[in-house]
Write a structure and sequence with these properties.
Layout lengths: L8 H8 L9 H14 L4 H19 L6 H17 L3 H13 L2 H33 L12 H12 L1 H10 L1 E7 L8 H22 L5 H16 L10 H32 L17 E2 L13 H29 L11 H13 L1 H10 L4 H17 L10 H17 L3 H4 L2 H12 L5 E7 H13 L5 H20 L4 E7 L4 H15 L9 E6 L2 H14 L3 H9 L3 E7 L1 H7 L1 H22 L2 E7 L11 H6 L9 E7 L1 H7 L2 H18 L2 H13 L1 H19 L4 H8 L2 H4 L23 H10 L4 H4 L2 H8 L2 H10 L1 H15 L3 H8 L5 H22 L9 H34 L5 H18 L4
Parallel strand pairs: 1-2, 1-8, 2-3, 3-4, 4-5, 5-6, 6-7, 7-8
Helix pairs in contact: 2-4, 3-6, 3-10, 4-5, 4-40, 5-40, 6-9, 6-40, 6-41, 7-8, 7-28, 9-10, 11-12, 11-18, 11-28, 12-15, 12-18, 12-20, 13-14, 13-15, 13-16, 14-15, 15-16, 16-18, 19-21, 20-21, 21-22, 22-25, 24-25, 25-30, 30-35, 35-39, 36-37, 37-39, 38-39, 40-41
């Protein structure tokens, strides 16, 4: 798939096979591709990377042993670019005819080629971001930008004063929670190959900067692309929960362990200037990593108490190994002489304690470091961390607080001895790592459905013999007790109740915990967190919260934590319940009411946002969403779920991870600034009537579609919804039940994923056009876009969603359903929404006010179209066979699944 077209023969042969439909000549094709690429205004360095990677992929295809593959890929590529730039039906029909002309085996190969191309383009785009970030060395893009913690601090201090701003900085908390929801379409083997390619690209850049021969790097890149091409793109079977745990651990090992303390260091450098590193930092660790991987059992029968224990054990192993190696490295380098840097009395006392506990090792260390007291201590501390990892109770640390205390003794001794650079340099980084990750790495959270709790309690109270489900539910509480005792109180203890609909749903957790330990046992320490998901539950949330805080065990825990409370809000099911517009408005209103209630009750509230990667599930830029939250709903604390491909996109590369964390933390600081809270409060009041009109109109429009007779089977027919369950994306089942006659049992992820694959993206925008039309006052809506953050975020997210959709391809999916009434409803609403969004954002097309984003979407779109055309032919064949009662064609099914993986890579979205 290089950027020069092969000889003219293939185009002529292809033309002869398409019923006389003329394909472009070689000259026309080269001119078309050149004009298309030039029109994207891609930065030259990125253009060079894409050209190089595409050329090497083309070489791999030519050497693949499949005659004519490269030429067929080029034919379809040129045709889809032509169809994208030429809106005539003839150009689109030509591209469709080429896709339909392939044998199933050739279509399979072509789909794989385009998928590989997307992986390479995504890699080049990520590499360009990293390149820019490194050139800026962590500085924001504009001098007046506030999307870094340091810049946000300066702006906040100007409003509230230095002392208050510092207090807010030091109490700030960003808490991403990684989940195993099945939204990562790539195999781990594919992701690993891409990471190797990223390292090779970085090495190649270094060679070019140093004037070295890049041919060796190009050969290695070619070899890796060949490996990527030959790697099966589809998982042979679903990953187990333990596989999912290990996948998340790869992100920690490769990125987060070092990236997070580097963020703290950068912020401290910016705020303290030249004094940073020579005195105690003013930044306190503000990141906490949570995880549902191995703890979320809502609808996943494969997550058991045993899996939860194993997940915690794996995470602990990773962090303790990291801490051990870091302490050992720092200790070996801490060769400060006892005369120039004398130990404090506390350090001498610590040496005596460590020596008494580990005499042989202390003697060996003293022999190798005869007058290096600080070095000796760090080396013995490293041994104690290793003993903690191997569960040597006599030597290991009981909890991370004791390790922190020992490290503080070393730090204070160094500072008093006149060695502040050593005290607050690498040693400080280690302290930050222990304070952030403890001995557990991720704070493992348990989630279970309220209906399961009710069922188990009814069985327990009836005195009937215990079922397997009951034993498993009770064993979870015993597992939490074990984890708290083994790894510390922070390791586990948050218990999330899905579909919380009453205070009893929360009180039931404490009742089950008492059953688990028996009358003489002590239940684990639990922070029970309600999850409000549906539209009705969001409306009932304030009443349920007011009731539960009076419950004795809930109230006791509230007092023990200084009246701290977490409340989780579900974005996915509320959007599936009432549509994206009404759900967004309902979520804002729920947050405002809960925040006001918490303030009145003197409760320190943390709202936990259950957001997905796709826009239909609360996705989109996190920092802009934070700044659009209601007053007092953030207050320096922001917690959200990070799912599937989002984890690797945001945290897979160290430079991108640091930038993301910096941006989010900056938004957390600014969200509670007086100016931002006033802006949100005033806008909410000023546009109350607009919100009410949009809410009613959008819900009516949404219900007219999803509540129409026969909608659910129609949806399953016009999208690959049924087939998505065959993709081995994650351990969790795609449905809560078996029926497609109702959407109630369909999980939000396949609901979103299916519409995305059909290039309709309905879950991100449907109902907005009707909502805006009902308001009708265009000048007022333009003003709302300028000064109502919630509205602006909604419109911008819809613009992105629609930009990734495609009208012509969507029509072909909708035609599969033989329901012109429903198809017309979707087409009309899409056109109406597109028209309004373009008018409100200015310009003549979607994303006209975001040129960088617009270029990224346009660059991918024709290549995604190629995969969509291949998917359509497979879907039509499968639907035809199903109607005829014929058995499923495994080759067509495989082609469909390959195209699903490719479209997900191209759109960089699944669920």
């Amino acid at each position: 798939m290089r950027h020069t077209i092969g000889d003219d023969t293939s185009a002529k042969q292809g033309g002869d096979s398409l019923d006389g439909m003329r394909e472009l000549t070689q000259t026309e094709a080269i001119d078309l591709v050149g004009r298309f690429e030039a029109g994207q205004e891609i930065p030259e360095t990125m253009r060079a990377d894409v050209r190089m990677l595409g050329s090497l992929l083309g070489r791999v295809l030519q050497e693949s042993g499949s005659p004519g593959l490269f030429d067929d890929v080029e034919r379809l590529r040129v045709a889809t670019i032509d169809a994208y730039t030429d809106e005539s039906s003839a150009a689109f029909a030509r591209a469709q005819a080429i896709a339909d002309s392939f044998t199933v085996q050739r279509a399979d190969e072509v789909a794989r080629a385009f998928t590989c191309y997307f992986h390479l383009v995504n890699l080049a785009e990520e590499h360009q971001r990293v390149r820019i970030l490194r050139e800026r060395d962590g500085r924001p893009e504009r001098e007046d930008a506030t999307d870094s913690v340091a810049a946000a601090f300066v702006r906040l201090a100007a409003e509230v004063g230095d002392e208050t701003a510092l207090s807010r900085l030091q109490s700030m908390r960003f808490h991403p929670v990684f989940t195993a929801h099945p939204t990562e379409a790539r195999r781990r083997a594919v992701s690993t190959s891409i990471r190797r390619l990223a390292a090779l690209l970085e090495e190649r850049d270094g060679m070019r900067r140093n004037g070295a021969d890049v041919r060796r790097a190009d050969r290695r890149i070619l070899e890796e692309i060949d490996t990527l091409w030959r790697t099966a793109p589809l998982r042979p079977e679903k990953p187990s929960p333990v596989d999912e745990v290990r996948a998340v651990m790869a992100v920690f090992d490769e990125t987060l362990y070092t990236a997070v303390p580097h963020v703290y260091r950068r912020v401290d450098d910016a705020l303290q200037g030249p004094a940073a590193g020579g005195r105690a930092p003013i930044v306190r660790p503000f990141v906490r990593i949570g995880s549902w991987v191995g703890g979320d059992r809502d609808g996943n029968p494969f997550v058991t108490a045993s899996i939860t224990r194993k997940a915690a054990s794996i995470a602990s192993e990773h962090v303790l190994l990291g801490l051990e190696r870091t302490a050992l490295r720092i200790g070996r380098g801490l060769t400060l002489d006892g005369t120039s840097t004398p130990p404090s009395d506390a350090l001498i006392a610590l040496w005596q304690r460590l020596k008494a506990a580990d005499e042989d090792a202390a003697a060996e260390v003293a022999k190798r470091s005869p007058d290096e007291p600080h070095r000796r201590i760090l080396l013995l501390i490293a041994r104690k961390i290793a003993a903690t990892r191997t569960r040597d109770a006599d030597l290991g640390y009981r909890d991370p607080e004791r390790l922190i205390a020992d490290l503080r003794v070393v730090q204070e001794s160094l500072a008093r001895a006149g060695a502040p650079r050593q005290a607050y340099g690498h040693l400080q980084q280690l302290l930050w790592q222990v304070e952030t990750y403890g001995f557990h790495l991720t704070e493992l959270e348990v989630r279970q459905h309220s209906a399961v709790h009710a069922k188990v309690l009814a069985e327990l109270e009836s005195g009937a013999p215990r079922t397997e489900l009951t034993d498993e539910v009770l064993d979870v509480f015993r597992a939490v007790s074990y984890l708290q005792e083994r790894y510390g109180a922070r390791a586990a203890g948050r218990y999330i109740v899905s579909f919380t609909q009453s205070a009893d749903d929360l009180a039931n957790v404490h009742r089950l915990a008492r059953f688990a330990v028996g009358p003489s046992g002590t239940p684990p320490v639990l922070d029970v967190i309600p999850l409000f998901e549906t539209f009705a539950d969001l409306q009932a949330a304030p009443r349920i919260l007011a009731e539960i805080v009076e419950h004795p065990e809930f109230a006791a825990r509230l007092e023990a934590t200084g009246r701290r409370l977490e409340v989780m809000l579900g974005y996915s099911d509320s959007s599936k319940d009432v549509g994206p517009v009404a759900a967004n408005l309902a979520l804002y209103e729920a947050q405002a009411e809960i925040a006001a209630w918490a303030q009145q009750e003197g409760i320190e509230l943390t709202l936990f946002h259950g957001r997905g990667g796709a826009l239909g599930r609360g996705g989109g830029p996190a920092n802009s969403a934070i700044l659009a939250q209601p007053p007092h709903s953030v207050d320096g604390r922001f917690k959200l779920t990070e799912q599937g491909e989002v984890i690797f996109a945001r945290y897979g590369d160290p430079a991108i991870a640091m930038r993301h964390i910096d941006q989010v933390a900056a938004a957390i600081l600014l969200a509670s600034s007086p100016s931002n809270e006033k802006r949100n409060r005033d806008a909410a009041e000023r546009y109350t009537d607009v919100a009410a009109t949009m809410d009613a109109a959008s819900r009516d429009r949404f219900f007219s579609l999803v509540k129409a007779p026969g909608f659910a089977p129609w949806f399953a027919r016009v999208t690959p919804m049924e087939e998505l369950g065959l993709l081995a994306l994650g351990s969790r089942p795609a449905r809560r039940g078996l029926s497609v006659e109702s959407l109630e049992d369909l999980r939000a992820i396949p609901w979103v994923f299916a519409w995305t694959q059909a290039r309709i993206n309905l879950t991100g925008w449907f109902g907005l056009g009707s909502a805006l039309e009902a308001v009708g006052d265009e000048p007022r809506l333009v003003r709302a876009y300028d000064d109502w953050p919630l509205f602006r975020t909604l419109i911008d997210n819809v613009a992105m969603s629609l930009a990734k959709a495609d009208d012509r391809i969507a029509r072909h999916y909708l035609e599969l359903g033989d329901r012109e009434d429903l198809a017309a409803l979707v087409r009309d609403e899409m056109a109406l929404t597109r028209s309004w969004v373009v008018r409100l954002t200015g310009g003549t097309e979607l994303l006209g006010n975001k040129p960088v984003l617009q270029r990224a979407v346009k660059m991918r779109s024709p290549y995604v179209d190629a995969l969509s055309l291949l998917q359509l032919r497979a879907l039509r064949a499968l639907r035809t066979d199903a109607e005829a009662g014929a058995p499923i064609d495994p080759e067509q099914q495989r082609l469909l699944l390959l195209s699903v993986s490719g479209v997900a890579a191209g759109l960089q979205n699944t669920g």
